[in-house]
Amino acid sequence: MLIKLKDNDGRVIQEVEVDDEFGEWYVEQERIEENAKRRDRYWITVSLDSLDYEGMRFADPSPTPAEICEREDEQRRVDEFKKTLTPTQLRRLELLEEGNSLREVARLEKTNLSAIQKTRDQIRKKYEIFSGGQGGQND
Known about the structure:
Layout: E1 2-6, E2 12-17, H1 20-42, H2 65-83, H3 87-97, H4 102-109, H5 113-130
Helix pairs in contact: 3-5, 4-5
């Protein structure tokens, strides 16, 4: 039997005469290899190790223990900071946290806009001092 040896690009590089039993085995191996290549083209394999990099499509959306700890630490720091505020500053900050604009807070507090802006600036200064001048950025 005459078999054709091919390079990676599929070009015939040599023809070799072999006995029939080996030739049949070789042809069967080529067929199996071609089928495997065809399957690879149609099927997308997903590695479980790569789930972090493939997004939420495959990953569990619930927070990891590390994320839970980070959120708890962050909430503790927010609570500590809020304890440094006066009752008026705290009340106005909470209104802003709810999504109210400065004008809406002024209307709700029955005061003028400049008073709310002044309170906001005072809160910012206190936060800068509280956070060590980092402006809320973590290392």
